[in-house]
Amino acid sequence: MKQPDHRLFVIRLTPRGRSAIASLLLAGRDALATLVPCLAFPSSGQTSVAQDDCASDIPVFAYFLLGNSREEIVLHFRRCDMIELHCHGGDTVVNAIETALIKRGAVAQTWQGGLLETQEPASSPKHLTLCGPLDMIQREALQLLPLAETEWTAQLLLAQYHGALSRQIQHVLNLLDGATTTTHDTSPDRAVQEATGILDSLLATYESGRHLTIPFRVEVIGPVNVGKSSLVNALVGFNRSITSQVAGTTRDTVSAKTVIAGWPIMLIDTAGIRETLNPVEQEGIARMKAVMADSDLLLLVTEACETQTGQLPQTMTIPETTPVVHVVNKIDLAEQQASWHFRDLPDTVPVSARTGAGLDQLTEMMMHKLHQSSDLARDDVAPSQTALVFTERQYSQLTSVRQLLNRGETASAIPLLRRNCFGLTPK
Fold first, then answer.
1. In a domain, 293, yes or no
2. Are residues 130 and 247 in the same domain?
3. What is the DSSP string of 327-353?
4. pLDDT single digits (tens) 62-78
5. Per residue in 76-115, pLDDT tens?
6. What pTM value is reported for the model?
7. Domain of residue 54, residue span
8. Which residues contact 194 (CB under 8 A, 6 or more apart)?
9. Whether 327 contacts 300, CB under 8 Å
């Protein structure tokens, strides 16, 4: 039998720092009983608050008692177990109120953590409404939404908040539930096979989903003086990196954020690769090698007049798991016949950072390399219908479910999917 939850949380809803108004949320079963002794009321009007006030949308004006002083506040009752306190926005006032509530048994919590602590799990995702309980996936989407760096990724997170991923999980649960009963119209093997296919498709979205709030890291590498910095500047649209005809101008990694097809991208300009005795340049090359291991994509830049296009010095090794796009720069200086030749090479895009030729084709190939799920690389995807696995927790739990199904342990996969993955209570 589930024990009642008597935890009480005080949550800052507004950022720390000076402001005109600050808002706190007191959440928990004992919120009203804890708050009432801290209050006083104007001489005329209301003299206390009770259960009846929780059903009213009318704000309550009161004083919060702080030792020998008192602070004006406005109370708004979402419910008796969720009470908003609005006060003056100075840190001193907010800290004093928060400390007073902590002394009375509340636990300070961030608003992100509060989303996970102050909602009861839903019994089934299909019953969710905007005003009803949220499942764990929806809460995670709501937590991450302020961190979205582009309008497109925010729309995708909103889709998960509105249940895009939860609906897919519910479909998998329905299939698995049906596979364990004898009255289901579909054969058990076919139901499990369909559920497995959906899980595989969802797992393939994680490499994209985890970048809804974290930019893809794209490192630009190649020999000296092939136009790497010029390419970075062309992609971001301004002169982020210093360029010159002198080999070795870039001696450290230089990063710049941009947005391509709605996705946040961190472009990393690196030192040119060559044999050198210059200790500063050597350090730049060493840093470039260190960054390579954490990159989501490598742009290997060479120039059109070089015959060894796409080649690196033998001392350089590209990680096998990191996708690579060969970028042939300075195509404007090459003969037209050479340009057509480069277009036929696999994973190769001829460009001119100076004129902009080929940049559209380059960004299109970059997005296809970055998104392991091909649907997400398309520009006609409807975000409201797109289900994405977007946290490490989701990916780990779905992988565990997939492994159970692979071993034929369908009955064990169902409660794991329902409870551990998404906080859903058993039927």
1. yes
2. no
3. EEE-GGGS-HHHHHHHHTSTTEEE--T
4. 999 998 899 999 999 88
5. 988 888 899 999 988 899 999 999 999 999 999 887 777 6
6. 0.70
7. 8-117
8. 175, 186
9. yes
